[in-house]
Amino acid sequence: MKRREFLGALVGAAVVGPHAARAQQQPLIGFLSSRSANDSTRMLEGFRRGLAEAGYTEGKNVALEYRWAEGRYDRLSALAAELVAKPISILFAVGGEPAARAAVAATTKIPVVTVFASDPVNSGLIGSLSHPGGNVTGVSILSASIEPKRIGLLHELMPQATRFGALLNPKTPTYAEQLAAIETAARSLNIGIDPLQASDDQGLERTFKAIEQQGTAATLVSADPYFLLRRAEIVAFAAKSRLAVLYPYRDFADAGGLMSYGVDLADSYRQMALYAGRIIGGANPADLPVAQPTKFEFVINLKAAKALGITIPSTMVALADEVIE
User: Residue of 52, 76, 157, 262 with fewest CB within 10 Å of its CB?
Assistant: First the structure.
């Protein structure tokens, strides 16, 4: 190579090299969850499936930085701040309303894709469902609006019962909304509700004792990340106490619980990952309408029913999306 050509190559490398390196740098997604990694396996599969549909693979052309609160909502603000301090392209917040609010409070500039458990417009998180505005969008699962359906299913299972227990987390922002929806639905069926509260392991143990003392025959577990995290303990208690329980997610039925009805969380994560892919590609979150869940699952565990001595009506079995035998 001639000296002039050699110098030209060096200059070209000096000018083009840094730009090429930046262009090849993988976008970084900050992943904030109020749950733990161990209880999120199925949801993470849905998330990665959505990324793949959008053309992205973790470790190949996109990187992820994870933070798990493990059911401790008081940790979410600090974990969100840690992620925002990094060069993330998107903040992905899952695990109920606490994670959504922590993410929104952490940044007004970085795009946030989250799951809304309550009405995000009324709570002031976005401007409107069709045009969120600002830097926030996601999927709205409206947990409280599903509670009446759960009460109806529990009533169909035990039509002679006059009172049900309802387990809720008083520390979640949607607590009052969920309780009101449950009580309203129960009144329409002439059923009384005994609210049961737990936000940590000690509270859960106290709730277990209260159920035993009250002789509760059936209980509804509301949609809350902490309860999903402790599903093994809740399901084990129900089995020991021969308690009929309707759960909010199929993960409980898979763990041996009697019945579950709720949003397909894995599919909601997939929807959110598709949005993340669009934002990486240049879409503005302000213009991405808040999506609604597309899949709900009613799962019956006949093996658990047999162990509890409960006969599931054939009409309910026929309605189930999946029956575990």
Answer: 52
Separation of alpha carbons 33 and 67, rounded Å: 6
Among candidate residues 46, 29, 272, 257, the one with its CA nearest the CA of residue 141: 272
pLDDT tens string 8-32 = 443 444 333 333 333 347 899 999 9
Could you give the CA distance from residue 93 to residue 99 in angstroms, rounded to a whole number?
Answer: 6
Residue 124's region, left for phi above 0, alpha for psi from -120 to 50, else beta, is left
Q: Which CATH superfamily is domain 143-263+297-324 in?
A: Response regulator (3.40.50.2300)
Say whether pLDDT at 229 is over 70.
yes
CATH 3.40.50.2300 boundaries in the chain = 3-142+265-295, 143-263+297-324
Structure tokens at 139: 């999927």
Q: Distances in Å between the alpha carbon of 90 and those of 66, 94, 106, 233, 279?
A: 12, 13, 12, 34, 8
**Contacts of residue 209, Cβ cutoff 8 Å, sequence gap at least 6:** none
d(CA 170, CA 153): 24
Looking at CATH, the fold of the domain delimited by 3-142+265-295 is given as: Rossmann fold (3.40.50)
Say if residue 181 is exposed, middle or buried (CB neighbours under 10 Å; 0-12, 13-18, 19+).
buried
Residue found under tokens 């597309």 = 294
Virtual CA dihedral for 30, 33, 36, 41, nearest 10 degrees?
-70
**Mean pLDDT of the region 201-205:** 95
